[in-house]
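README: folding subset

This subset contains proteins for which both the sequence and a predicted C-alpha cell string are available. Records are stored as plain text. Below is the entry for Beta-lactamase-like protein (377 residues), shown exactly as it appears on disk.
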Amino acid sequence: MLLLGILSSAFLAKPASAAFGDFGIPASHATVDVRMFNVGTIFATTGASTFIHPVLPGHENASSPMYSFLLEHGASGQRLMFDLGLRKDPQNLAPILAAQIATGLFQLDEPKDITEMLQEGGIALETIDTVIWSHAHLDHFGDMSKFPNTTGLVIGSETDTSTFPENPNGTLQTSDFAGRTVTKIDFATANLTFSGLKAIDYFNDGSLYLLNTPGHLPGHLTALARVTPSSFVVLGGDTFHHAGEARPRPAFQKNFPCPAHLLEETRTSISTDFFWSPRSRVGEFDLPSRAQQLLAVADIPGSVYADPVASQVSLEKVATLDADADFLVIVAHDLSIAKALPFFPASLNSWNAHGLKAGTVWNFVDKANPAFVFSPA
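--- output ---
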C-alpha cells in the first residue's frame, strides 16, 4: 500500500507539460490526418441505466451521436475508416437486431449513412483501403456491403465473427465479410504497452497504434493517431459513453482546471443528493475536491458492458491519457462535444494549436449542454 501511495503521488505530481514519451510512446514524425463525421443519433428509450450509474430522475432516456472517422496516412496516402455508425436501413440488419429496432427499443435519426457522407464529400469508396471496427456492435459496423471488396476489414481477434443464418442469434451477416480480406489484431503478439494498454504499430512508423481496451465487448480496441509529432487523437470507441465516466480526476483537474463560470455553476447545478466530495455541503457541490469520476460504468444485468470490471480497468487506463495535454480523447457517443468539435471536411490535427481540448472537456458539466445529467430534470 505504501508503494501504491508513492506511485499515486508521483503520478499526481506530474507537471502539465509532461511529454507523450512518459507513457512509453516512441518518438516519430510520421502522422495521420483525422477527420470526424457525426453519422446520426441513436435513442435508447429508458436505456440510460445500461450505460451509466447513477441515472437521475428525468434522464432515463439515452441520446447518443455516432461518430465515424476518416484517417489518411501521410506517408502512403492510405485511407482508413474507424467505425461506421449504424446503417440507415436497420430493418436489413440481422434478424435479432432488426427485431430490437422494430420494438422501439432503439430509435434512429440518420438521414444519410457514412458511405453517402463520404461520397458527397468527394471521397470515393474505392479509395478506402481499410475499415477498422472498434467492436462489432450495430452502431459501429455500419454496412460493409457498400464498400468494394478491395476494402479490407480490421477487427480485434476476440470478435465473434459468426454470422446469421449459420448462427440464428448472430448479429453479423455474411455480407459483412464476403469477398474481402479480414485481419484480426492479436494483442498477444504486441511488444508495446502505453499506459498499461497493449499496443500494435499499424503502419510500423509510429503514426497509428491500435490499443487493446477490453470489457465493453470481446475484441474491443482503441486507435491512437499521431496528428503532429507530439500530439495525438485517441479514438476510444465505447471504452466509455459519457465524459462523466472519465472525469473529473485529480490529474485531469490539475492539467485542465474547470473554467470559472462553469465551476461556479456546478456549485448549485450538481445535486448533492446524488454526488458528493470532501468539501461539499448540502446543496452546494464542490467540484475541485472531487477525486473520482462523477459517473460509473453500468454493471446491472443488461448493461452494455459485457465485462464491467474489465471495462472499468480499460477506462482507467484511457483516462490517464485523457488527463494529459498531449492527447485528445474522443469516444464514439460523447454527446457533450456534438456541436463543439470540427467535422469533415475539417481536420482534427490542429486541435492542440487551437485549444480545442481545454475549450471542450468540461462541456459535460454545463447545465445548458445536452450531456448534463447531474441534477433531476
